[in-house]
Amino acid sequence: MSSPDLSIVIAAQGSPEETSSCTQSLKNQTDIRPDQIEIIVEGNESIQAEGSESSQVVGSKSTQLQPTLQGRSLPLLHGTGMCKARGKLIAVTEAHCTFPTTWASAAINSHASHCASAIGGGVLPGPQLNGVNFSLFLCDYIQFLPPLDADASGDLPGNNIVFKRECLPDNSTLSTNGFWKTFYCHDLESKGHQLRIDPALSVFYNRKLTFAEICARRYHHGRCFGGMRAENSSFAKRAILFTAGFALPILLLLKLLSRASTKTDGLKLVFMHLGWIWLFLMIWAYGEWIGNILGSGKSCAQL
Protein backbone atom coordinates (compact mmCIF):
# COMPACT_ATOMS: atom_id res chain seq x y z
CA MET A 1 0.00 0.00 0.00
CA SER A 2 1.39 3.40 -1.00
CA SER A 3 1.86 6.09 1.63
CA PRO A 4 -0.70 8.92 1.71
CA ASP A 5 0.52 12.45 1.13
CA LEU A 6 -0.82 13.65 4.49
CA SER A 7 -1.64 12.00 7.81
CA ILE A 8 -3.71 14.02 10.31
CA VAL A 9 -3.30 12.95 13.94
CA ILE A 10 -6.23 14.06 16.13
CA ALA A 11 -5.91 14.01 19.92
CA ALA A 12 -9.44 13.39 21.22
CA GLN A 13 -10.06 14.33 24.86
CA GLY A 14 -13.58 15.71 24.63
CA SER A 15 -17.00 14.35 23.69
CA PRO A 16 -17.70 11.88 20.86
CA GLU A 17 -19.77 14.60 19.16
CA GLU A 18 -16.79 16.94 19.17
CA THR A 19 -14.54 14.28 17.65
CA SER A 20 -17.16 13.40 15.06
CA SER A 21 -17.43 17.04 13.92
CA CYS A 22 -13.65 17.22 13.56
CA THR A 23 -13.30 14.02 11.54
CA GLN A 24 -16.31 14.85 9.38
CA SER A 25 -14.78 18.18 8.40
CA LEU A 26 -11.66 16.30 7.28
CA LYS A 27 -13.67 13.73 5.33
CA ASN A 28 -15.31 16.63 3.47
CA GLN A 29 -12.00 17.89 2.02
CA THR A 30 -12.05 18.86 -1.65
CA ASP A 31 -9.39 19.16 -4.36
CA ILE A 32 -7.64 15.95 -3.25
CA ARG A 33 -7.95 12.26 -4.08
CA PRO A 34 -9.32 9.87 -1.42
CA ASP A 35 -5.96 8.13 -1.08
CA GLN A 36 -4.03 11.33 -0.39
CA ILE A 37 -4.96 11.74 3.28
CA GLU A 38 -5.16 9.51 6.33
CA ILE A 39 -7.06 10.50 9.50
CA ILE A 40 -5.89 9.03 12.82
CA VAL A 41 -7.98 9.60 15.94
CA GLU A 42 -6.11 8.87 19.14
CA GLY A 43 -7.82 8.80 22.46
CA ASN A 44 -11.61 8.58 22.43
CA GLU A 45 -12.96 5.15 23.37
CA SER A 46 -16.52 6.30 22.71
CA ILE A 47 -15.63 6.71 19.04
CA GLN A 48 -13.91 3.32 19.07
CA ALA A 49 -17.17 1.69 20.17
CA GLU A 50 -18.83 2.65 16.89
CA GLY A 51 -16.92 -0.02 14.96
CA SER A 52 -15.76 -3.53 15.74
CA GLU A 53 -12.29 -2.94 14.30
CA SER A 54 -9.56 -0.58 15.43
CA SER A 55 -9.18 0.62 11.87
CA GLN A 56 -12.07 1.29 9.51
CA VAL A 57 -12.86 3.24 6.38
CA VAL A 58 -15.50 5.92 6.83
CA GLY A 59 -16.63 7.51 3.60
CA SER A 60 -13.68 7.90 1.26
CA LYS A 61 -11.02 8.73 3.84
CA SER A 62 -9.06 6.20 5.89
CA THR A 63 -9.59 6.67 9.64
CA GLN A 64 -7.77 4.78 12.39
CA LEU A 65 -9.59 4.85 15.72
CA GLN A 66 -7.68 4.16 18.91
CA PRO A 67 -9.06 3.47 22.43
CA THR A 68 -8.43 5.79 25.37
CA LEU A 69 -5.92 4.85 28.06
CA GLN A 70 -6.47 6.55 31.41
CA GLY A 71 -4.06 9.39 32.18
CA ARG A 72 -2.90 9.92 28.60
CA SER A 73 -1.94 13.52 28.08
CA LEU A 74 -2.25 15.54 24.89
CA PRO A 75 1.47 15.14 24.02
CA LEU A 76 1.26 11.37 24.53
CA LEU A 77 -1.87 11.11 22.38
CA HIS A 78 -0.12 13.04 19.61
CA GLY A 79 3.08 11.02 19.97
CA THR A 80 1.25 7.69 19.85
CA GLY A 81 -0.77 8.73 16.82
CA MET A 82 2.29 10.03 15.00
CA CYS A 83 3.93 6.62 15.42
CA LYS A 84 1.06 5.09 13.43
CA ALA A 85 1.02 7.74 10.69
CA ARG A 86 2.10 6.63 7.20
CA GLY A 87 2.00 9.99 5.42
CA LYS A 88 4.83 11.93 3.83
CA LEU A 89 3.50 14.88 5.84
CA ILE A 90 2.15 14.56 9.39
CA ALA A 91 -0.25 17.08 10.90
CA VAL A 92 -1.23 17.30 14.56
CA THR A 93 -4.48 18.80 15.81
CA GLU A 94 -7.12 18.44 18.52
CA ALA A 95 -10.68 17.15 18.29
CA HIS A 96 -12.27 20.50 19.14
CA CYS A 97 -11.01 21.90 15.80
CA THR A 98 -12.89 21.82 12.50
CA PHE A 99 -11.39 22.39 9.07
CA PRO A 100 -12.41 24.31 5.93
CA THR A 101 -12.84 22.04 2.92
CA THR A 102 -9.61 23.27 1.27
CA TRP A 103 -7.34 22.81 4.33
CA ALA A 104 -5.72 19.49 3.33
CA SER A 105 -4.96 20.56 -0.24
CA ALA A 106 -3.54 23.85 1.07
CA ALA A 107 -1.28 21.95 3.50
CA ILE A 108 0.03 19.64 0.78
CA ASN A 109 0.57 22.48 -1.70
CA SER A 110 2.24 24.72 0.89
CA HIS A 111 4.79 22.05 1.78
CA ALA A 112 5.40 21.34 -1.91
CA SER A 113 6.16 25.03 -2.47
CA HIS A 114 8.43 25.62 0.54
CA CYS A 115 11.38 23.89 2.16
CA ALA A 116 10.13 24.65 5.69
CA SER A 117 10.16 21.62 7.99
CA ALA A 118 6.97 22.73 9.75
CA ILE A 119 4.12 24.89 8.49
CA GLY A 120 1.29 26.19 10.65
CA GLY A 121 -1.70 28.37 9.94
CA GLY A 122 -4.35 30.59 11.44
CA VAL A 123 -6.74 29.68 14.24
CA LEU A 124 -10.21 31.27 14.17
CA PRO A 125 -12.84 31.21 16.93
CA GLY A 126 -15.81 28.93 16.31
CA PRO A 127 -19.25 30.62 16.32
CA GLN A 128 -20.50 28.83 19.45
CA LEU A 129 -17.79 29.89 21.94
CA ASN A 130 -19.15 31.49 25.12
CA GLY A 131 -17.42 34.41 26.85
CA VAL A 132 -15.15 32.39 29.12
CA ASN A 133 -14.00 30.04 26.36
CA PHE A 134 -13.52 32.94 23.95
CA SER A 135 -11.29 34.56 26.58
CA LEU A 136 -9.25 31.36 26.80
CA PHE A 137 -8.99 31.37 23.00
CA LEU A 138 -7.60 34.93 23.06
CA CYS A 139 -5.01 33.95 25.68
CA ASP A 140 -3.70 31.09 23.56
CA TYR A 141 -4.31 32.01 19.93
CA ILE A 142 -4.70 35.76 19.42
CA GLN A 143 -1.42 35.84 17.44
CA PHE A 144 -3.00 33.49 14.88
CA LEU A 145 -5.99 35.71 14.08
CA PRO A 146 -6.06 37.67 10.81
CA PRO A 147 -4.34 39.51 9.36
CA LEU A 148 -1.74 36.78 9.14
CA ASP A 149 1.17 37.08 6.73
CA ALA A 150 2.67 34.09 4.93
CA ASP A 151 6.21 34.19 6.26
CA ALA A 152 8.85 32.46 8.36
CA SER A 153 7.76 32.20 11.98
CA GLY A 154 9.02 30.68 15.21
CA ASP A 155 5.51 30.52 16.69
CA LEU A 156 3.14 27.91 15.27
CA PRO A 157 -0.20 26.76 16.75
CA GLY A 158 -0.17 23.31 18.34
CA ASN A 159 -3.60 22.46 16.91
CA ASN A 160 -2.77 23.40 13.31
CA ILE A 161 0.74 22.39 12.31
CA VAL A 162 2.06 20.13 9.54
CA PHE A 163 5.53 18.54 9.57
CA LYS A 164 7.64 16.91 6.91
CA ARG A 165 8.11 13.33 8.10
CA GLU A 166 11.90 13.35 7.89
CA CYS A 167 12.23 16.14 10.47
CA LEU A 168 10.32 14.31 13.22
CA PRO A 169 11.80 12.29 16.13
CA ASP A 170 11.95 8.51 15.85
CA ASN A 171 8.93 6.46 16.91
CA SER A 172 10.50 5.20 20.14
CA THR A 173 10.92 8.78 21.36
CA LEU A 174 7.39 9.75 20.34
CA SER A 175 5.74 6.73 21.95
CA THR A 176 7.70 7.04 25.20
CA ASN A 177 7.93 10.79 25.75
CA GLY A 178 5.08 12.07 23.59
CA PHE A 179 5.24 15.04 21.25
CA TRP A 180 5.90 18.42 22.90
CA LYS A 181 5.29 20.95 20.15
CA THR A 182 6.81 24.04 21.79
CA PHE A 183 10.08 22.43 22.79
CA TYR A 184 10.38 20.45 19.57
CA CYS A 185 9.87 23.49 17.33
CA HIS A 186 12.49 25.39 19.33
CA ASP A 187 14.85 22.46 18.81
CA LEU A 188 14.17 22.49 15.07
CA GLU A 189 14.98 26.18 14.85
CA SER A 190 18.20 25.73 16.83
CA LYS A 191 19.28 23.18 14.24
CA GLY A 192 18.67 25.55 11.34
CA HIS A 193 15.26 24.27 10.18
CA GLN A 194 12.76 26.80 8.88
CA LEU A 195 9.29 27.14 10.38
CA ARG A 196 6.61 28.92 8.37
CA ILE A 197 3.13 30.33 8.82
CA ASP A 198 0.58 30.10 5.98
CA PRO A 199 -2.88 31.71 6.43
CA ALA A 200 -4.34 29.30 3.86
CA LEU A 201 -4.19 26.59 6.55
CA SER A 202 -6.61 28.23 9.01
CA VAL A 203 -8.80 26.07 11.29
CA PHE A 204 -11.73 26.78 13.63
CA TYR A 205 -11.38 26.45 17.42
CA ASN A 206 -14.55 25.15 19.11
CA ARG A 207 -13.35 24.11 22.59
CA LYS A 208 -15.99 24.19 25.34
CA LEU A 209 -14.60 23.84 28.86
CA THR A 210 -16.14 24.68 32.22
CA PHE A 211 -14.57 27.43 34.31
CA ALA A 212 -13.10 24.82 36.67
CA GLU A 213 -11.63 22.83 33.76
CA ILE A 214 -10.03 25.95 32.31
CA CYS A 215 -8.45 26.92 35.63
CA ALA A 216 -7.07 23.40 36.18
CA ARG A 217 -5.63 23.15 32.67
CA ARG A 218 -4.05 26.61 32.86
CA TYR A 219 -2.32 25.78 36.14
CA HIS A 220 -1.07 22.37 34.98
CA HIS A 221 0.02 23.69 31.58
CA GLY A 222 1.93 26.55 33.20
CA ARG A 223 3.56 24.28 35.78
CA CYS A 224 4.48 21.65 33.17
CA PHE A 225 6.05 24.33 30.94
CA GLY A 226 7.94 25.91 33.83
CA GLY A 227 9.15 22.58 35.16
CA MET A 228 10.32 21.27 31.78
CA ARG A 229 12.13 24.52 30.99
CA ALA A 230 13.82 24.61 34.42
CA GLU A 231 14.85 20.94 34.20
CA ASN A 232 17.87 21.66 32.04
CA SER A 233 18.61 25.14 33.38
CA SER A 234 21.54 26.13 35.56
CA PHE A 235 21.00 27.19 39.16
CA ALA A 236 21.63 30.81 38.15
CA LYS A 237 19.00 30.70 35.41
CA ARG A 238 16.48 29.07 37.74
CA ALA A 239 17.13 31.85 40.26
CA ILE A 240 16.40 34.41 37.53
CA LEU A 241 13.20 32.56 36.56
CA PHE A 242 12.13 32.47 40.20
CA THR A 243 12.67 36.21 40.62
CA ALA A 244 11.07 37.10 37.29
CA GLY A 245 8.03 35.01 38.26
CA PHE A 246 6.70 37.88 40.37
CA ALA A 247 6.43 40.06 37.27
CA LEU A 248 5.30 37.28 34.93
CA PRO A 249 1.55 38.15 34.83
CA ILE A 250 2.38 41.69 33.71
CA LEU A 251 4.90 40.42 31.15
CA LEU A 252 2.35 37.96 29.77
CA LEU A 253 -0.30 40.68 29.50
CA LEU A 254 2.09 43.05 27.73
CA LYS A 255 3.00 40.27 25.29
CA LEU A 256 -0.67 39.56 24.61
CA LEU A 257 -1.43 43.26 24.08
CA SER A 258 1.50 43.54 21.66
CA ARG A 259 0.13 40.64 19.66
CA ALA A 260 -3.41 42.03 19.78
CA SER A 261 -2.26 45.39 18.44
CA THR A 262 -1.45 43.80 15.06
CA LYS A 263 -4.88 42.19 14.66
CA THR A 264 -8.19 43.50 13.39
CA ASP A 265 -10.05 44.73 16.50
CA GLY A 266 -7.49 42.80 18.57
CA LEU A 267 -7.12 45.36 21.36
CA LYS A 268 -10.89 45.86 21.50
CA LEU A 269 -11.42 42.11 21.96
CA VAL A 270 -8.81 41.92 24.72
CA PHE A 271 -10.28 44.84 26.69
CA MET A 272 -13.80 43.42 26.29
CA HIS A 273 -12.64 40.17 27.94
CA LEU A 274 -9.90 41.59 30.14
CA GLY A 275 -11.28 40.26 33.44
CA TRP A 276 -11.21 36.62 32.35
CA ILE A 277 -7.95 37.07 30.43
CA TRP A 278 -6.18 38.57 33.46
CA LEU A 279 -7.37 35.71 35.69
CA PHE A 280 -6.19 33.07 33.21
CA LEU A 281 -2.80 34.78 32.83
CA MET A 282 -2.44 34.87 36.63
CA ILE A 283 -3.22 31.15 36.92
CA TRP A 284 -0.71 30.27 34.19
CA ALA A 285 1.95 32.49 35.79
CA TYR A 286 1.42 30.88 39.19
CA GLY A 287 1.73 27.40 37.68
CA GLU A 288 4.86 28.35 35.76
CA TRP A 289 6.40 29.90 38.92
CA ILE A 290 5.71 26.71 40.90
CA GLY A 291 7.21 24.66 38.06
CA ASN A 292 10.35 26.79 38.08
CA ILE A 293 10.80 26.11 41.80
CA LEU A 294 9.46 22.59 42.40
CA GLY A 295 9.48 21.07 38.93
CA SER A 296 6.52 19.89 36.85
CA GLY A 297 5.30 17.34 39.40
CA LYS A 298 2.36 15.43 37.90
CA SER A 299 1.12 18.40 35.87
CA CYS A 300 2.40 17.22 32.46
CA ALA A 301 0.19 14.13 32.73
CA GLN A 302 -2.86 16.36 33.26
CA LEU A 303 -2.66 18.13 29.89
CATH top level assignment of the largest domain: Alpha Beta
Oligomer: single chain
Fourth CATH level, the homologous superfamily of the largest domain: Spore Coat Polysaccharide Biosynthesis Protein SpsA, Chain A
The dominant shape is: globular
By CATH, the architecture of the largest domain is named Alpha-Beta Complex
Q: Can you count the helices? A: 12
**How many strands appear in the DSSP assignment?**
12
What is the mean pLDDT? 90
Quick structural gist:
This protein has helices at 16-27, 45-48, 74-84, 103-113, 131-141, 171-177, 181-190, 211-231, 235-244, 248-260, 266-272, 274-294, and strands at residues 6-11, 37-42, 55-58, 61-66, 89-94, 97-98, 118-120, 123-125, 151-152, 161-164, 195-197, 203-205. The chain has a 9-stranded mixed sheet with strand order 3-4-2-1-5-10-7-11-9. It has 2 domains: 6-129 and 143-205, Spore Coat Polysaccharide Biosynthesis Protein SpsA, Chain A (Alpha-Beta Complex); 211-302, no CATH class.
Q: What would you note in describing this structure?
A:
With about 300 residues, this protein is an alpha/beta fold. It has two domains: about 5-130 and about 145-205, Spore Coat Polysaccharide Biosynthesis Protein SpsA, Chain A; about 210-300, no CATH class. The protein has helices spanning about 15-25, 45-50, 75-85, 105-115, 130-140, 170-175, 180-190, 210-230, 235-245, 250-260, 265-270, 275-295; strands at about 5-10, 35-40, 55-60, 60-65, 90-95, 95-100, 120, 125, 150, 160-165, 195, 205. Strand 3 (about 55-60) and strand 4 form a beta hairpin. Helix 10 crosses helix 12. The longest helix has 21 residues, at about 210-230. The chain is globular.
